[in-house]
User: Which sequence fits this backbone?
């Protein structure tokens, strides 16, 4: 049994650290500094935030940012209710009022006006101005803003501006070392380490192709899916194909090459 993956505090989502990120998170929270997490898809960013929020006993609000997400979606808006207009807090405003953690996932996707509300909240002012109500909320000491993005998907139009980026303490995420990743995938899927090891080895080979033939390598998330399918009784090759190859590419040539590579690694 892996002690690291089974925290003694109940209801804390399991998280295997890759470095000193847990201490860094806690220190940033203590010092009221906002945090930026960057790294490839499925490497544990969301799990890390959930783990830390539970460990610190803070309520967590997660917002998945997208092209159409505006500042008002985060702060709130007036809604019509039975002829009256009633103010309704958005998720960011609620998190500030509650003194919890607000986690903005894929923050680069959000509209530009989002930066306007994030800036005063992420420097030493720590205030959230609600333009519509005229309120100016001071964030309580326990409030923390965490944002994440995947630098791989970024294009020039969507890059974070330096004035935004330089308001955060940043942590770079990457996949776990081989043995650690085997432990995590085994704990998450139920498949034993001997069954997981060849999958992790295959994933590591496929990750090396990132940028050449593939936009992204196999994530830990896909490894967990694959191992879960095998644990449930699916033949290994079928599971690998559905969980580790098909999600990576739609190119017939690349797919064929990956299947061939799989055959040579999974004997
Ligand atoms: N360090 C880790 N400890 C425990 N589980 C992990 C870890 N890294 C990855 N996982 C597993 O991988 C899955 C995917 O991780 P997670 O959702 O946190 O990725 P992410 O980095 O947020 O990806 P995305 O950028 O796509 O949102 C988790 O649900 C968990 O099963
Ligand atoms: Mg995530």
Assistant:
């Amino acid at each position: 049994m892996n002690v690291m993956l089974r925290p003694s505090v109940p209801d804390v989502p399991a998280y295997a650290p890759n470095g000193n990120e847990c201490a860094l998170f806690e220190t940033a929270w203590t010092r009221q500094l906002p945090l930026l997490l960057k790294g490839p898809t499925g490497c544990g960013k969301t799990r890390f935030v959930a783990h830390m929020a539970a460990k610190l006993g803070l309520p967590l609000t997660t917002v998945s940012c997208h092209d159409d997400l505006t500042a008002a979606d985060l702060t709130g808006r007036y809604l019509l209710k039975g002829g009256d207009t009633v103010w309704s807090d958005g998720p960011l405003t609620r998190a500030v009022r509650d003194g919890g953690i607000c986690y903005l996932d894929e923050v680069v996707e959000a509209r530009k006006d989002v930066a306007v509300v994030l800036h005063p909240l992420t420097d030493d002012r720590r205030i959230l101005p609600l333009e519509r109500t005229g309120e100016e909320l001071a964030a309580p000491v326990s409030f923390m803003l965490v944002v994440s993005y995947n630098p791989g998907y970024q294009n020039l139009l969507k890059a974070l501006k330096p004035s935004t980026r330089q308001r955060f303490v940043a942590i770079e995420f990457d996949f776990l070392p081989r043995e650690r990743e085997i432990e995590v995938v085994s704990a998450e899927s139920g498949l034993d380490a001997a069954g997981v090891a060849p999958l992790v080895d295959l994933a590591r080979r496929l990750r090396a192709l990132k940028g050449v033939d593939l936009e992204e390598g196999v994530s830990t998330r896909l490894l967990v899916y694959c191992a879960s399918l095998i644990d449930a009784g699916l033949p290994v090759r079928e599971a690998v194909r559905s969980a580790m190859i098909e999600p990576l590419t739609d190119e017939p040539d690349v797919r064929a090459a990956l299947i061939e590579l799989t055959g040579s690694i999974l004997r």
